[in-house]
Please model this.
Amino acid sequence: MNMFNTTRNAFILILSIFWISYPFSFVCAQAENSSMITRIQEYYLGQSIKDAKGLTEFTDEEYRMFELAGAPKYFKDEKTYNARDVSFLEVNWETIIGATEGKVYKIALLYMTDYESEVNAVYKHTLEYLVNKIGNQSEHLSNSNQYIWQTKDGNILFNKVSNSGYYSVNLILTSNAINTNNLLRELK
Model:
């Protein structure tokens, strides 16, 4: 079920909450294998935005929604794009791409449904894959559905959210190959 067109506002608000949560490398223990996932189907971290197909830049309204939800632009030339849906672990994910300096620095995947059992199955399967691929998470809060892996190449944020009758699984890959001289504002 593709709910992208009917729940665009909920999608953007949910994702924006986690978009800037861990935008850059931060200090914590590295994941066991420190093997960052850098590619999801046709999109990969560091990819020239010119080579990324199927992108549509956010509208002014979408940028405003991100800003209102606490995810303002942090780079002078930062752009955010709606991208093609991707298949990852045999699940169809909605995709948003973040770019700065003409390169992809963030890939955000969202699986959203109004069925809790579906989101729980996707969450469990994806978490098992991430632990097998990368190792134990670098950070996990007790009684939380949020996991963070810090690797030498960037970080991965993975979580499950329930909001207003919608359930989602979010997977956000962020490269640490970012020029912080390009910052628009001070990081909080």
About this structure: Helices lie at 8-19, 60-68, 116-134. The first strand starts at residue 39 and ends at 40. The first helix runs from residue 8 to 19.
